[in-house]
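pinned: reference chain
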Amino acid sequence: MLVSLMTKDRQPWMKWVERKLDKVARRWGVREAMSAKPNKTQLKELKEDCIVESTLKIWFEIGGKGGGKQKEEKEEKGETVEIELSGMGVDEEKGGWTPIERLKTRQAYDRLIRTRMKLKNYKPRKAHKIVLGIQKQMTANERDYWWRLTHRVIQTKKRESKWKKDENGESETRECPVCKVEEEDWEHYDYECRGVKEMNKKVAESMGRTHAFSRSEWSLEEEGMEKEVMLNIAKARWIYHCERVKLAKRQRRRLNTEILMNRLNRRMTIVAAI
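pinned: its structure tokens
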């Protein structure tokens, strides 16, 4: 949103954002809100239920400030042209400056994670690196699912019960839609469910193994795994998740891992043919 504000050809609704930022700037007694140096009290006063003020708060959390370069040279069609910059940006940890016009969403997210979790030597989970290595053999939905899985943002039944209501206005059940016995918390969803274990065992057997994958292997956290094994697990977990969703919506009556394995085999056949 803030990047869009810095571009010349911005949409009409960005004028509303600009007015909101001007209002904050006047409240703080500065020329531009994004280039200000607010104190803790001013940051605390920013409204969480206002998309502009909450975004501005994140901007300062990732180290955003003004006073940067106003111009930059860029290669276009073999010629060097000079482009204007807003002067807004962030300092890099290893030195240098990234203007807001070149700031990517992933960069902003990583900086926000390090700031909020106070991680000085933050290293992403091993699964992130593994998925990056096999992403060309994965569909967009599979990649999106693994991003949500590794960041633990998938809605388990326990999470849903805290905010979701059924048609009668009552809280959703915490019961696992697959085994229909235990509460579905993260541990249950990720590895402990009877359905997960059955799927795990079937995939392991298809790979010629005599025992199921360990939790670290099933989560793609184990080092030294073969690429074919990683692909099978990555696709199997997405297929299983889709079936779990259908069970939760009562579009399926029970889990049939034989059907799921047939889907997995078809997907792996397509990958092998590419």
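why pinned: The two ends are 38 Å apart (CA to CA). The chain has 13 helices and five strands.
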